[in-house]
Structure formats: C-alpha cells, structure tokens
Automatic annotation (TrEMBL):
The gene is 101896917. It comes from Musca domestica. Residues 47-527 form the Major facilitator superfamily (MFS) profile domain. It comes from the Eukaryota. It is a multi-pass membrane protein. This is Synaptic vesicle glycoprotein 2B isoform X2. Pfam families: MFS_1 (PF07690). Keywords: Membrane, Transmembrane, Transmembrane helix, Transport. InterPro entries: MFS (IPR011701), MFS_dom (IPR020846), MFS_trans_sf (IPR036259). GO terms for cellular component: membrane. It is found in: Membrane. GO terms for molecular function: transmembrane transporter activity. PROSITE patterns: MFS (PS50850). The chain crosses the membrane at residues 45-68, 88-105, 117-136, 142-159, 171-194, 214-233, 317-340, 389-410, 417-438, 444-467, 474-498, 504-523.
C-alpha cells in the first residue's frame, strides 16, 4: 500500500509554504523516518533502562521462590509436592492472563497495561510476605503472576516502538543486558537478606517475620520503581498513530526530540501509519463495542490473525520454541538449588573424589528417603549452602558477559544464527554434564546449560519484527503464554523424573533444544524488512 506522510519540519521551516500536493508527495516520509529525526539519546536510554528493570522484575518475582523455598518450608508447612505447586503457580497466573493482557495492550495501549500491573504486582508481593500458611501464599503468588504477566510481554512491544529498524534489536538486547545484571544480583540479595539471623515477632498477626519474608518484598521493589517511572514515560507513539491519535503522536515525538537534545521544536503537520491495513481498521471498529460478548469477540478477532496463513508459520515456530526453552530455563532452573546443593555437599564431604552428576542426585534422594517419608516435612534450615550462591553467581556473570557480546553483534549477525549457536552449545553442555565423571566440571557444564535462556530474549527481539503494530503485543503475549505453560510443565516433569530418572530429564531437555534449533531455521523474514523493501519500491515507482 502506498504510504503518504508529510515531512517533519523544524520551527525555522514552518514559515515556508508548500507548493501544493505534488511537493508534499515528493517529500513524503514513513513513520520510521520521522522517528529517526527525533534522534537517539537520553530518552531512548531511559526507556531501555526501565524496560530492562521490568524484565529483571519478572525474573525476581518468579524465580526468587527457588531461593526462599528451602528456608520457608517449615513456616509454610511445605512438602515436596507443595514446593512443586509453589514453584509453578506464578507461571499459572501468567498463563491464564497473558491473552487478556495482550489484547488490552493492542487495543488500549502499552502504558495503560504496564503501569497499573507493576504497581498492583508489588502490592500483592508485600501482602504475600505476611502469608501465614501455604494456601494463602499460593493464592497470593497466583495473583502476583497475573499482574507480572501484564508487563512482562507488553514491554517488548513498548520498547520496540520507540526505535527504528536500525536500532530496535540493539535496544532490546541492551534491555536484556540490564535484565541479566539484575539477575546477577539475585544471589547477592539472597545471601544478604536470607542468610541473616534476626526475626520480628508480630503477635497481633500470629507470625514471626523472618529474613526470607523480607527477601520476597525486596525482589518486588524493581516493579514498584518501574511502575512509578511509567508515570513519566509516554505511550508508544507507534501505537498512538495506529489508532489515529495524531496530536498525541506528535506530542510524544516532540518530547523524544527535546529530551534527546533537539534545539528546535519539531513541527509535524501530519503522519500516516505504515501499517494502515484492513486488520487495523477492523480492530479500530472493534474498540467501539461494549459488553462482555463484544469484548470476547474483539479479543478473538485480535487473536485469529496470528493463526491465519500470513502469520501461521511464524506463530507456530515461535510458540513451540518458547515452550521448550521455558521448560528448560525455568522448569529445570527451579530445581537448580537442589542439584547444586547436592553436588556441593558431595564435594565437601568427599574431597578429591569424583562422581557422575546423576549418581550424586540419586544418592541425595536415597539419603533423604532413609530419614523421612516423601510427604513429611524435614528439618528447618535457616540458611542456604554457600555453594548455591557461588554457582548462581557464576551463572549470572556468564549471562551478563554473553548478553554484552550479543548486544554488540546483534545488528551484524543474524538472530537465527545467534539462537541456533546458543541452543546447540547449551545442549552439548547439558549432555556433557551427565556424561563426564568429574564433579566440579559437571557442575560448571550444568550451569552453562542455562545460558540457553538468552535465546528467549533474542527470540523476543525477532518476534516483534515478525508482526505489525496491531498484533505485536498479542503475539508476544501468546508466545510467552506458551513459554509459561512450558515452565509449569517443566517444573513438574523435572520434579517427577529427577529423583529416579535423572538422565532422562537431561536427554529430554537436550533433544528438545536440538529440535528448537532446527525449527528456528524456518522462521520467515521480519515484516519490517519486507515493509521497508516495499516502501522503497513504491517510492521508486511513484516519484
């Protein structure tokens, strides 16, 4: 479709008159070119930092349970079965709400979803720190997962729409780099907060407030900070333009230009969306409908295009890949402290002796079964082993370093290539971890297995390029919903297999990764690349 956009002019040019419609057509520019003229500076860095902190908040809120579960099971009366439920419940909340948040983000706005869900998520986190029993904690973490889901997927669409095709991927990887730095602080936070010896009796509530409860609150603070920051950030200009809010779009572009160091006010007579399609028009009509049936119909209409011929291949590949990557990075990670603690105890009690990773896991399980029944609550440690912190920190340092490298090369190397190399390398580490009879080396290889999680962020950067503005947030939410299902499935599968079929757990994970690497090769070209090529061809045909 031919796109006609009047050029952005500075105030010095505002006195010049146009020479009619022909001159306007000759000077027509796309939205991306208009966005390019706002510059790249402080405003973009602010958006990237906030987006990175939001991603870090998602990790802290969902993964912190792996650190506080071992020291909270007496207060919450946790059995092994209940630990599995508590590990998975946050992802259940994300799964049941992802579709709704994607719809609202695509129809009501990115900011209108991100801001309230961040604040609400923190409030629920604070309340959950006072939970006196397992079922209360379970319900509150479910609600927290629902709110965390609102920001986690929408933020990808939000950050991408403040950047052009040239800077989008790099911006998203910088945000992921900030996320990795935030993740690196989790072992520090856990050690600094959980491994303290203090307690605060609250007789009016009938509980004792311990360090692990404070750790729950601390992990939610980034959400509060980002929620406040969103009050000062604008709505996505591309979203505003897609729903024909011309004046609001101009205001956002002018704000970006000013914060980025522009000396003169941008004068924007008119802009047209690059994606003025029938799907957009239909979506705009749907937003005028009211009532629960109309709401559900509109949400259905917003989802159907993702599974129609034009986007079916992209949606299928992205969803399947997300599912299995989350099975490994989140499902298997929830048992990371358990396995690393077992290996640490073995090395501490058997200096100089080596053993296969899975043999150590089997020994640990047999040792527990000799003392207690599987459904019985065992002793009540108040601290975690230092080995857990050491290997967790090692993993996060490698994460940050790898993110830094990918951030530099993301615009020079194909995203497909990056993901395939990462997945194949990590699957090799996973197999080597259970095949080598050297405990310390196996522990490091086991840590390297989780670097496959970096592929999730690269896949997110690729996904936003595969869909137009009107479907972008919904596509991210649907794909991440499949990922969260993978987290729930992975957590419970690993819990069921790790004690008796440890090798099978790793074989399934590595085979799934190899399958994902093959699927990624069939991802289509980004829609932005095709749009740019079409626009250039149209410009040449219509001088």
């Amino acid at each position: 479709m031919v796109v006609q956009v009047l050029p952005i002019q500075t105030s010095n040019d505002s006195t010049k008159t146009t020479n009619g419609k022909l001159k306007a057509l000759e000077e027509a520019i796309t939205f991306s070119e208009a966005l390019e003229r706002t510059g790249y500076g402080k405003f973009n860095y602010l958006v990237i930092i906030v987006a990175g902190l939001i991603l870090a908040n998602v990790l802290l809120e969902t993964s912190a349970v792996a650190f506080y579960m071992p020291v909270a099971h007496c207060d919450l009366e946790l059995t092994n079965f209940r630990k599995g439920l508590l590990s998975a419940i946050g992802y259940v909340g994300m799964i049941i709400s992802s579709h709704l948040w994607g719809f609202l983000a695509d129809t009501k706005g990115r900011k209108r979803v991100i801001k309230p869900t961040l604040i609400a998520g923190f409030v629920v986190t604070v309340i959950s720190s006072f939970a006196m029993d397992f079922w209360t904690m379970l319900c509150l973490r479910l609600i927290n997962g629902i709110f965390v889901s609102g920001a986690s997927a929408t933020v990808y669409a939000y950050i991408s729409e403040f950047h052009t095709d040239r800077t989008r991927s790099k911006a998203m990887m910088i945000a992921s780099f900030i996320f990795a730095i935030g993740a690196m602080f989790m072992p520090f936070l856990s050690f600094a907060v959980i491994n303290r010896e203090w307690s605060l009796p609250l007789p009016f509530m009938g509980l004792v407030y311990k360090p692990w409860r404070l750790f729950v609150v601390v992990c939610g603070i980034p959400g509060l900070v980002c929620g406040i920051a969103m009050y000062f950030l604008p709505e996505s200009p591309k979203f505003l333009l897609s729903i024909n809010k011309q004046e609001e779009t101009k205001e956002v572009l002018q704000k970006m230009y000013k914060v980025n160091g522009g000396k003169e006010k941008l004068v924007i007579p008119h802009l047209l969306s690059e994606e003025d399609t029938d799907e957009d028009v239909e979506s705009s009509k749907n937003k005028k409908s009211y009532g629960i049936l109309s709401f559900l119909q509109t949400m259905w209409n917003q989802t159907v295009p993702l599974f129609q011929r034009k986007y079916l291949r992209s949606t299928t590949i992205v969803c399947i890949t997300q599912f299995w990557l989350y099975v490994i990075t989140n499902g298997l990670y929830m048992w990371f402290p358990y396995i690393i603690n077992a290996m640490g105890e073995f090395m501490k009690n058997n200096p100089g002796k080596n053993e296969y990773l899975c043999e150590i896991v089997y020994y640990k399980n047999e040792h527990l079964n000799e003392n207690v029944d599987n459904s019985t609550i065992i002793d009540c440690p108040d601290k975690l082993e230092n080995t857990t912190y050491m290997y967790s920190l090692l993993m996060e340092i490698i994460y940050v370093s790898t993110y830094a490298v990918i951030t530099v090369i993301i615009n020079r190397v194909s995203k497909k290539c990056i993901m395939v190399i990462m997945i194949l390398s990590c699957s090799s580490c996973g197999l080597a971890a259970i095949w080598l009879p050297y405990t310390s080396i196996s522990a490091i290889l086991y840590v390297l297995l989780f670097l496959v999680g970096i592929s999730i962020n690269v896949l997110g950067a690729a996904t936003v390029d595969l869909y137009p503005t009107k479907l972008r947030a919904m596509a991210m939410c649907v794909s991440l919903m499949m990922g969260r299902i993978g987290s729930v499935v992975g957590t419970n599968i690993v819990g069921a297999l790790i004690a008796d079929s440890c090798e099978m757990t790793f074989y399934i994970s590595c085979f799934a990764m190899l399958s994902c690497a093959i699927l990624i090769l069939f991802l289509p070209r980004s829609i932005t690349t095709e749009t740019t090529a079409t626009t250039k061809a149209t410009t040449q045909e219509n001088p």
